[in-house]
Structures are given as C-alpha cells and as structure tokens.
C-alpha cells in the first residue's frame, strides 16, 4: 500500500522529471516527448501547490490522507507556510 508520504514525493519527483525532459537541449529526448512534457507541465501542480494541497488534506481530518505535507522539502515549505 502506498503511503501519503510516498504519494506526495512521487508527485514532486514526477514534476522534476517532466521538467528535466522539457529542458533537454542535448537532443537525447525526441521533440515530440519534450513537447508532451511541456504540455503536461502547463497543468501540473507546482511543488508549492502540492504543499498547499497536502496541508489542506491534512487539515480536513480525512481518515485516509492522500498527501503528506512532511514529504514536501523544507525549502519549498518555507515559501507557503504561514
């Protein structure tokens, strides 16, 4: 079973992977894949938004948390914590 922490980290890592694919200028990734990564990133939540979502879910006191704010790196969390 996937934990909320693992799910949150997977979202962050997936976004980083898509960004790395989009930025590939060496020609190792086909243009069609780079363009698809760019299209997906237009609608993909930022790390800060993932942090906001994880906080909102935790505060809702749901019995099955979907995301874990502890999985968001501290340097990102500083940007949105009040």
Could you characterize the architecture of this molecule?
The chain is mostly helical and 82 residues long. It has one domain (4-77). The protein has four helices and no strands. It has helices at residues 4-23, 31-43, 47-59, 74-77. The longest helix has 20 residues, at 4-23. The radius of gyration is 15 Å and the shape is elongated. The relative contact order is 0.20.
How many helix segments? 4
Q: How many domains would you count in the coordinates? A: 1
Estimate the helix proportion, in percent: 55-70%
Q: What is the quaternary state of this protein?
A: single chain
Q: Rg to the nearest angstrom?
A: 15 Å
Q: What sequence of helices (H) and strands (E) makes up the elements?
A: HHHH
Average pLDDT over all residues: 83
Distance between the termini: 32 Å
Low-confidence stretches: none
Count the beta strands. 0
Q: Describe the sheet with the most strands.
A: none
Structural class: mainly alpha
3D shape: elongated
Beta-sheet strand percentage? under 5%
């Amino acid at each position: 079973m996937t934990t909320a922490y693992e799910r949150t980290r997977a979202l962050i890592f997936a976004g980083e992977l898509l960004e790395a694919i989009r930025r590939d200028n060496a020609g190792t990734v086909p243009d069609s894949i780079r363009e698809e990564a760019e299209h997906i990133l237009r609608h993909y939540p930022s790390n800060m938004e993932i942090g906001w979502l994880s906080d909102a879910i935790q505060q809702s006191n749901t019995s099955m948390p979907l995301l874990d704010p502890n999985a968001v790196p501290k340097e990102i969390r500083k940007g949105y914590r009040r």
